[in-house]
């Protein structure tokens, strides 16, 4: 192919990740309610492992289409995890540590990018012979989570609010926070459940049309847009 066609193909390979991320994050709400936070994260590891396999074998197969499919699958996994991980981490943590635990997602997000940049150096995995291994490295954290996450309980609020499993909720709380009197936490979840019964869940279109959320929406859009101007993409 010509140089222009190579540039076009590579641009598509880079950008397809965001399309996968958009689809993954759009399905997060449904998956988190339908399967639970824990199972949603376990399911999200399947496209990550598929992505790793496709990109690892792309050079051997001589197929750039496999890289495109792999990048799309990786984006799908990232989109699902971005929503469910923060939700799960916040719900399983004690109230006094909830803010701190939620912030750690941003810290590890940045740490993951840093490790990827280092591994991408030509002296490490960014060489002509090892780049398929670099692109397949997303499979290692997915595999680690797939092995370790089954040992963790489901989110207590999910068990109580969506499944109405009070015993399962108490068991999960004891497993997470140890033995003790946790009735106050259960009461808080019950209050939240009662509040949500009177709260209408809005679709994206309804959210855009709702005047009460207009300023919050403006603020979110402005913050998200200005992040792209801070220089992180150039770095």
From TrEMBL:
PROSITE patterns: MFS (PS50850). Pfam families: Sugar_tr. It is a multi-pass membrane protein. One of its GO terms (cellular component) is plasma membrane. Its main location: membrane. Keywords: Membrane, Sugar transport, Transmembrane, Transmembrane helix, Transport. GO terms for biological process: D-glucose import; dehydroascorbic acid transport. One of its GO terms (molecular function) is D-glucose transmembrane transporter activity. It is found in: Membrane. Gene3D superfamilies: MFS general substrate transporter like domains (1.20.1250.20). Residues 1-235 form the Major facilitator superfamily (MFS) profile domain. It comes from the Eukaryota. This is Solute carrier family 2, facilitated glucose transporter member 5. It comes from Manacus vitellinus. The lineage of its organism: Eukaryota, Metazoa, Chordata, Craniata, Vertebrata.
